[in-house]
Amino acid sequence: MNQTQLGNRKFIIGGFFCFVALVYVCRLFYLQIVDERYKMDAQNNTFRYQTQYPARGYIYDRNGKILVQNEASYDLIVIPRETKGCDTASLCDVLEISKKEYLKRIKKASQYPNSPRKQSVFEKQMSAKTAAELQEKMYRFKGFFIQKRSLRKYPKPVAAHLLGYVGEVSKEKSAKDAYYKEGDYIGISGIERSYENALRGKKGVQIALTDVHNKIVGSYMNGEYDTAAIQGKPLYCTIDVDLQEYGEKLMKGFKGAVVALEPTTGEILAMVSAPSYDPNVLVSGKQRNRAFAKMYQDSSLPLFNRALQAMYPPGSTFKLLGALIGQHEGVIHRGSVFPCAHGFPPMGGKPKCHSHAAVNLPGSVATSCNSYYSYVFREITDQKKFPRYADGYSHWRNMVMSFGPGTHLGTDLPYDKPGNVPSADYYNKVYGVNGWKSNTIVSLGIGQEALLLVPLQMANVVATIANKGFYYIPHCIKGVGKQGEVDKKFKEKHFVGVQKEEYYENVIDGMQMCFDSGTAYWERVPGIVACGKTGTAENPHGKSHAVFMAFAPRDNPKIVIACLVENAGWGSVWAAPVVSLMMEKYLTGKVTRTWEEQRIMAADLIHGKNLLSTEFH
After folding, report:
1. What is the reported pLDDT for 36?
2. CB 302 within 8 A of CB 276
3. Which terminal residue of the chain, N or C, has fewer Cβ atoms less than 10 Å from its own Cβ?
4. Could you tell me the residue ranges of all domains in the chain?
């Protein structure tokens, strides 16, 4: 190889290395001067990404009164790998925890599914005072920072079961829904659960710059990369908070439920489950845990929503459906009379009956004759047009279910039970195929046997009667957001199996007689023509339940109410007064029968006081 060739190779190799060096210089210039993203990554240890949590939407009652609002709360956040040099003794002193507890929490924040590099909640729901004390010393607490949150606040301690409560999201939910991170809050029950997507709002993020003392000194790029949190939508509820509060006062000494509806819309005016609790106790931290544990162990079950989840035999109130279906089937009419000798004669006087005189259809409603409706049940199911008895029974069952019993009504509240209207298959299993007839299960005609309804369904039945053949799905939200959107299904009429207005008028005549001269005579509402039906529901687990359903006024009804008081016996003594007082309060704005109000509010049936032993339907 000659000298010329060696010289050329030297220039080629040298040129190559110069080119590579130039590429590196250009790339470094681009990374360090031109591209801010890499500069941002290089300085990542001085940045703090703070989630901006939106305030949950407020909830208002039908008259614009606030039911649920927010108050400020603060969480202490930790990034475990950055805690080196933290003044742990001072931090433990402020938080009133031990060094052992501190190390336990740091370990938990560092372990899977968490990470030493990720943010975790170290102390949740701190008071403003504690947060301020920490903020003053934050330069001493490396790896920690404070994040503002909001908690629910209830100006009036009512409607706990309807409104529901908020709690930490489950690991399963946070894994399925990218919106949530572990430690986030989510609606657990009631409206808070049903309307979570509207109430929760939209998260934002703020990129803050911190100095070597862990203090925020500004925002990155003047907030150019920040996103603002968007508050959740307000909800406009259907309930009347004054009526709700009054109902809870009346039911304070009882176990049971009250549901009040506006029949022309299906809007829930009040929903009381008793005993109840102050929703404020399930809001924050240690108080919440203690309160929840105490109520969970309480034998009276204050956490249990009896209005939606407790299934009860409806007792004599169910006779209203028998009267309607019997007329529809053509087996009875207004003047129909059946014998009664203190009981159902074909079965030797069982079921028993307090009545003994034969009465027509309206009279049978007013006096609540058991024998009458045992005959009605038999006449409906034993019709010759059905080839088998099971076919006649199934037809009766389908007619009953068209009014709502035995179904999920489709309300906008979670966890509602369907009740139970037993099927023919159920009786085939109990008695064998062809082993049962109408007399075997005749007590279904008076709302007993295996028949079960939830109080919401009871209210829906009487709403259907007030409307003379249709109902709107009961719901508790009038509108979502400022535009007031609402699910279209709540605007649809649901027609039941009985449609002829004459049949409803005959039954309503009897319901009016119930107040005018029947079993609810002493609960007449001054100046208001009301229609109702008493019931005493036999309870296999103890004393009978008191039941009452009513609507008022008779013409253009504005409110329907169903009330059940557990283990109270007479529907006319305990359930009827609650209903009539609530109707008077809602329709007139005041209560004139203060002596009745005082008697009900002074009762304490939970502990066995004021409980009368005599019972009638």
Report:
1. 52
2. yes
3. N
4. 47-237, 241-277+303-607
76, amino acid identity = L
Secondary structure (3-state) at 455: helix
DSSP assignment of 180-230 equals --TT-EEE-SHHHHHTHHHHS-B-EEEEEEE-TTS-EEEEGGGGTT-B--B
Fold for the domain defined by 47-237: Penicillin-binding protein 2a (Domain 2) (3.90.1310)
Residue 515: count of CB within 10 angstroms of its CB: 26
Per-residue tokens: 409: 């009504």
Residue 307 CA, distance from chain mean position:
10
Dihedral (CA of 77, 80, 85, 87) sign:
positive
Residue 532 CA to residue 362 CA, distance in Å, equals: 12
In angstroms, rounded to a whole number, what is the distance separating the alpha carbons of residues 555 and 558?
9
Specify which residues 208 forms β-bridges with: 48, 219
For domain 241-277+303-607, give the fold: Beta-lactamase (3.40.710)
- In whole angstroms, give the CA distance from residue 236 to residue 277: 22
Percentage with pLDDT > 70 across the chain: 89
pLDDT tens per residue, range 440-489: 999 999 999 999 999 999 999 999 999 999 999 999 999 999 878 888 99
Using the CB atoms, write b or e for 400-438: b if 16+ within 10 Å.
bbbbbbbeebebbbbebbbbbbbebeebeeeeeeeebbb
- Is the Cα torsion angle 516, 332, 311, 477 positive or negative in sign? negative
Quick check: bond before 113 cis, omega within 30? yes
DSSP category for residue 167: E
Helices vs strands, H then E, count in the chain: 21, 18
Degrees to nearest 5, angle at CA 63 with 60 and 69: 20
Structure tokens that stand for 449 in this block: 């046997």
Residue 308: pLDDT band (50, 70, 90) is very high
- Residue 570 in contact with residue 546, Cβ under 8 Å? yes
Token pair 């990542």 in the structure block, residue: 44
pLDDT digits 0-9 by tens, 410-438: 999 999 999 999 999 999 999 999 999 99
Residue 282 DSSP code: G
Q: Which residue has the tokens 């507890």?
A: 101
Residue pair 517/368 in contact by the 8 Å Cβ criterion: no
Long-range Cβ pairs for the range 468-472 (8 Å, 24+): 468/501, 468/504, 468/505, 469/495, 469/496, 469/498, 469/499, 469/500, 469/501, 469/504, 470/494, 470/495, 470/496, 471/263, 471/266, 471/403, 471/404, 471/496, 472/264, 472/265, 472/266
Strand duo 59-60 + 559-565: pairing: unpaired
